[in-house]
Amino acid sequence: MLVAGLDLGSVTGKVVIMEDESILSSSVVPSTMVPEKTGLKALGEALDKAGLTSPDDLQYIIGTGYGRQGTSFIHKNMSEITCHARGAHWLNSDVRTVIDVGGQDCKVISIDDRGKVVEFVMNDKCAAGTGRFFEVMSRTFGCSLEEFAELSLQSDTFIHITKQCSVFAESEVITLINKGADQAEIAAGLVDSIVRRLMAMVYRVGFSPKLAITGGCAKNEGLVRGMENALKDKIVRFPDPQIVGALGAALYAREMVVDPSENGTSSQNAESILKS
Question: For residue range 238-258, what is the model confidence (pLDDT) as tens digits?
Fold first, then answer.
């Protein structure tokens, strides 16, 4: 059985291809202005890695992420909340809280012992706490995202950043740099501001160990360590946290092939919570 999950985000498109119960291949590509184009490019790369030649080799494809509605070759759309929960649970069945930090929003998801969504909160109205915030700040420092994460780890103390909005925070950072403030302390303060924002969302959902962070920002070691310090608990780390949403979509695609009637309602609980 060959199936695929696509997670078409604002910054990257991700694909996971599964054969039976194993991950056969995956890919991550930069997003284009056209979700269909992004999806085809990501799927093409994953097919090549798997030694496959055509999307027709796949029995079922599920799409998730903000661009899922604009993709014609998938069989079904699902919310990224549902897919991140399912993917995280498959990777580690002990996980009960998932933080998905995406390019333009962030979500905190509480899940049960089956990987189903119990509750969630999300921030999709402001760039603060998202990958876009880190992009803006790294650009302000004139460095890459990886260099910014390393910089934030170089100081045991931090300068408190008062502004939450990315626009005002950028102005505050520029002022601090011009005044000669230690850049490592500024970077650490920016990470701390995101940690505080995420922790407020965690407490709204209700923290249940163990917690995992998904999405591209989970590769930011400064953010992960900051969350560990705030929670006083270790974060569950995945080999590639960026593909967890696509993995969850692929897992649901597999279930649709095995038993479509069972999958019809149980996998949609995130959408039900959102509407209630």
Answer: 999 999 999 999 999 999 998
Same domain, 271 and 254: yes
114: containing domain = 95-237
pLDDT tens column, 8-49: 998 899 999 999 999 999 999 999 999 999 999 999 999 999
Report the side by side order of strands in the sheet with 22-30.
Answer: 22-30, 12-19, 2-8, 60-64, 76-77
Is residue 117 domain-shared with residue 60, that is, in the same domain? no
- pTM, 2 dp: 0.89
Domain count, the chain: 2
Instruction: Indicate whether 100 and 225 sit together in one domain.
Output: yes
CATH code: domain of residue 175: 3.30.420.40
Please tell me the distance from the alpha carbon of residue 111 to that of residue 72, in angstroms, as a whole number.
30
Strands (E) in the chain, as ranges, are 2-8, 12-19, 22-30, 60-64, 76-77, 97-101, 106-111, 117-123, 211-214, 235-236
> What torsion, rounded to 10 degrees, do the Cα atoms 17, 23, 25, 29 define?
70
